[in-house]
Amino acid sequence: ILLLIRNPKDVATSFYHFTNAMSPLPSYETWDDFFVAFMTKKMPWGCYFEYLSKWNKYADKENVMTITYEELKENPVLGVKNIAAFFGISLTEKELQSVVERSSFQSMKNNSQKTHGAFGSVLFRKGGISDWKNLFSEDQNEKMDKAFEEHIGGTKLGTKLKYEVYCKA
């Protein structure tokens, strides 16, 4: 099992834009309205912190590899090598480069109409890291940090996310 996790602040930012672009989902007048809903577990798909907490029970299993979105963005070649090794797949240098290129956010975004139809433009927005800084107030940032610590701060997944997001930033 490959478990891909992401900075909860960027998850919230991404979900905010996603929900406002998808008419069947609830939309929010303002970022502040969305943030309250996100932090009070009023999302149609549940609470991201609870999701991470549940997965944390499996993080030490030998058949589970956890990788962060941030790791893959920082060093996609190493990420693909590690994933291939985990699954026991040997790749030539040419195959490795092909996977890295074809799985890049930009490549997936460019091909989204072919792979996801009209839905593609909603799924692939920016693909960056730290976009949350464009929306979060200082108070919201502190509330998210507090919730992070309360839910997953000392766990394996929490430690991995904290390292990737805060120590490498």
UniProtKB/TrEMBL annotation:
Domain of life: Eukaryota
Pfam families in the cross-refs: Sulfotransfer_1
Annotated keywords: Transferase
Residues of the Sulfotransferase domain: 1-155
Enzyme Commission number(s) of this protein: 2.8.2.-
Example GO molecular function: sulfotransferase activity
Coiled-coil boundaries: none
PANTHER family for this protein: SULFOTRANSFERASE SULT (PTHR11783)
Protein family (similarity comment): Belongs to the sulfotransferase 1 family.
Listed name of the protein: Sulfotransferase
Lineage: Eukaryota, Metazoa, Chordata, Craniata, Vertebrata
